[in-house]
Every structure is written in structure tokens, then in C-alpha cells.
Design goal:
Helix content: over 70%
Number of strands: 2
Radius of gyration: 25 Å
Shape: rod-shaped
Structural class: mainly alpha
Amino acid sequence: MAANPQAGLPPQVQQQFAMFQQLQQQLQQISSQKMQYEMTLRETKRAAEELESVKDDAAVFASVGSIMMQKDKESVKADLAEKIDSLELRISSLEKQEKTMSAKATQLQKQIEGALAAVNAPKAE
């Protein structure tokens, strides 16, 4: 049988440990979301670069929902630029959240370690 690692710990330390685990899960979600946005940003920038090499009068198609529509090059360029700006803003926001949460997690980890050290310290008799 596996013992509960929190068994015998003061309720405050158990609560801090639960908060720490929750912060770690949230950090993982934010990191995953940020990676997805970064991948989309790279793809969008690549599409914008490819569009630059296309003649101004060439047929350009853009995905609109589940269909492809022919659009003028300038309209597609504007859409891509807007999408790039939006993605960069989202990534920046996620980076700030990640940094803040990481600092909180580090602080909480130190508090937990300090409390565990106090609990496990030999008692003077």
C-alpha cells in the first residue's frame, strides 16, 4: 500500500501543497496554450512571407471557415498582419501569466519546504 505523502502534516501545509499542485497544473496548461499559439504564429508568418513572393495580380485564396474563397492579395496580407498582431499579444499575455505563476509557485514551494523542515526537526527534550 502506498502511504499518503500528506498524512500527518499540519492542515496548513496540506492546503499549501494542494495550492502548489494546482499552480503547477495551471502553469502546464498555460505553457501548452502558449506553445500552440507560437506554432500558429510561425505558420502565419510563413504564410505572410510566401504571400510577399506572389505577384500582385495572382489569384490568392484564404480559408474562411470550412471553405476557400478568392480574395485580393492586400486583403489577405491585412488579415495575416492582424492575426500576427493578435497572436503576439496573446503570447505576451501568457508569458506574463506564466512568469507570475512561476514566481508564486517558487514562493509556495519554499514555504512548504520550510514548514516540512520545521515538522521534521528533532524536538528538544
